[in-house]
């Protein structure tokens, strides 16, 4: 039997596809926790539950439901609230997932701090704001951190735990244990930094891909294949550091002896940060839209396909972790 405790949830719901709060709720009930969903748009939290019910049912059918409870048991752990203080009652953990607007997050956390006990952990889903900004209006910042998920968190399990300069080690460790228990893959950042780790690495990849296309070296279609048929094959299972450690007979030191200078030469040839909205950007955008038109119908179909593929990959990774 799983112990059932209370995780509270502030906000989620996106009417379209987005939905970080909704996904978090599914992850936490999968782990057997009680979850209260709150949204400041009346009725929105209830709508989120309707959507979650549908998704849990579908996941149960394809045997991809997480945790040890069945879909109806997981649903029974969920409740929706239009009142913040009600949603927070009894909580030990709050995961905020409101709009990516600094002032909205700052004032929400100010309200939350007034309503919860002193040991409750305050966690933000923000992708682009550092903890020292998000929590600047909270008095006790030792209990605050960012837990940054990747969309969709149900299949892509990484969570970046990013401390405020004042975050207590205990708070980070408790969150790490909670995320592990619900089946996510948490990593610690030792300090806050703009973009955290994932988005910094992603920005480097976007920049060089963009430049290679803009400089007429490769097409949009083919640079995507470089990743999906090349680098990405390894990266779904091992990261860049292990990749290079395994790519020389005597490991990493040997690899750098052989290839370090070459990598430095390439890095020194990198051109400046691209202007993503210049005249030159138009032809890249057109090339992409010729492959996948940017209307709602084509984009949703590709998003659906992406999520199906991620589901298959999540299954494969689960088999290999046994
Ligand atoms: N979508 C992604 O890919 C992704 C990935 C990682 C992290 N995030 C982060 O998650 C957060 C939410 O993103 P999303 O894509 O789910 O956004 P969203 O627009 O889908 O959802 C935001 C929700 O917040 C509600 N809301 C707004 N102000 C509120 C308030 N004061 N109190 C309560 N509820 C309020 C809105 O009604 C809406 O339902 C953002 O900080 C974003 O950076 C998103
Ligand atoms: C879910 O599990 C509960 C408790 O074991 C059981 O009563 C219920 O019938 C199950 N529901 C389904 C749809 O399997
Ligand atoms: C601040 O938060 C920490 C971590 O939750 C807690 O242990 C401590 O008691 C809090 N301090 C005050 C003054 O509330």
TrEMBL record:
The keyword Lyase does not apply. The keyword Oxidoreductase applies. This is Uncharacterized protein. Gene3D superfamilies: N-(1-d-carboxylethyl)-l-norvaline Dehydrogenase, domain 2, NAD(P)-binding Rossmann-like Domain. GO terms for biological process: fatty acid metabolic process. InterPro entries: 3-OHacyl-CoA_DH_CS (IPR006180), 3-OHacyl-CoA_DH_NAD-bd (IPR006176), 3HC_DH_C (IPR006108), 6-PGluconate_DH-like_C_sf (IPR008927), 6PGD_dom2 (IPR013328), NAD(P)-bd_dom_sf (IPR036291). Signal peptide: none annotated. Keywords: Oxidoreductase. It comes from the Eukaryota. It holds the Pfam family 3HCDH_N. Belongs to the 3-hydroxyacyl-CoA dehydrogenase family. Residues 17-191 form the 3-hydroxyacyl-CoA dehydrogenase NAD binding domain. Residues 195-269 form the 3-hydroxyacyl-CoA dehydrogenase C-terminal domain. GO terms for molecular function: L-gulonate 3-dehydrogenase activity; NAD+ binding.
């Amino acid at each position: 039997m799983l112990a059932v405790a209370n995780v509270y949830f502030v906000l989620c719901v996106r009417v379209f596809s987005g939905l970080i709060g909704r996904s978090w709720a599914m992850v936490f009930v999968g782990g057997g926790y009680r979850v209260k969903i709150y949204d400041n748009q009346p009725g929105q939290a209830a709508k989120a539950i309707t959507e979650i019910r549908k998704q849990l049912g579908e996941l149960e059918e394809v045997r991809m439901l997480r945790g040890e409870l069945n879909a109806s048991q997981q649903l029974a752990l969920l409740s929706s609230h239009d009142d913040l203080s009600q949603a927070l009652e009894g909580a030990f953990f709050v995961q905020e997932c409101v709009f990516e607007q600094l002032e909205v997050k700052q004032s929400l956390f100010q309200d939350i701090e007034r309503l919860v006990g002193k040991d409750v952990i305050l966690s933000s889903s923000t992708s682009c704001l550092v903890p020292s900004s998000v929590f600047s209006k909270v008095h006790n910042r030792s209990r605050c951190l960012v837990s940054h998920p990747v969309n969709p968190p149900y299949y892509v399990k990484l969570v970046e735990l990013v401390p405020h300069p004042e975050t207590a080690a205990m708070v980070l460790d408790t969150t790490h244990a909670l995320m592990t228990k619900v089946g996510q893959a948490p990593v610690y950042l030792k300090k806050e930094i703009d973009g955290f780790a994932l988005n910094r690495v992603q920005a480097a990849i976007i920049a060089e891909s963009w430049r290679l296309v803009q400089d007429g070296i490769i097409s949009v279609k083919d640079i995507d294949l470089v990743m999906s048929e090349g680098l990405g094959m390894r990266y779904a299972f091992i990261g860049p550091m292990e990749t290079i450690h395994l790519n020389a007979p005597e490991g990493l030191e040997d690899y750098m002896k052989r290839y370090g200078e070459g990598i430095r030469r390439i890095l020194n040839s990198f051109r400046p940060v691209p202007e993503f909205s210049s005249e030159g950007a138009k032809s890249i955008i057109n090339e992409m839209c010729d492959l996948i038109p940017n209307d709602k119908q084509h984009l949703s179909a590709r998003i659906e396909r992406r999520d199906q593929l991620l589901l298959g990959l999540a299954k494969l990774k689960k088999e290999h972790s046994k």
